[in-house]
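Practice problem: predict the structure.
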Amino acid sequence: MSVPGETPALRVLPRGRHAAPRAVVAESQRERVLVAMADATAAKGYANVSVADVIGRAGISRRSFYELFANKEEAFLAAYDAGVAGLLEAIAEAEEDAGAQAATGPGALTARARAGTEVYLHLLADNPAFARTFLIEVLGAGPAALARRDAVHQRFAERLADGFAAISDAAGGLPEPQPYVFRAAVGAIHELVTDCLLKRGAAALPELLGPILEIELRLLSARAPERTGRR
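Answer:
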């Protein structure tokens, strides 16, 4: 899996009679632009990044850039989307594997949460440029980026809800939190991770495993308070 922010060795495509098909060249250039976009954004901030910054890091021409993307914003959104897709895919695989191996009930909830959270934190730690793009720079990248961020938070909340529902069914039924509890859990985790990234750097993110698990398990498994009749 490739996540923007991790700069791989650039592949050298053959030229002349043995040149790669145009579609292969375009895909290679697109991947390089996504990585370059995340790297440049992390280094300079979205507002200060220019197309020249991106193409310089990607090693492509301005013409090639505009054949792939209409502008800087479109490239940023594509980098964000690609990173999020890879992140969610890796988390889903880890959670499914852990859920299949664990017992039902609270033990399965703990195992599933731990596996997904470990993958989430380690991927961000290993890809600091994407971590900053995903968590911080997206806030200043315009309305379309904010809408993407909101949709991603909702997807994370839905994943928590789906995981809880699967475990609850296997355990014969557990008290199900309201949807806002799952969204609140995502917000709390996001705040904790962002604070760590800003103050301590991406390398420290895996140390948040324990605190994040506590947030998830307390919010998702604790009993709801008794209603008093007040609104």
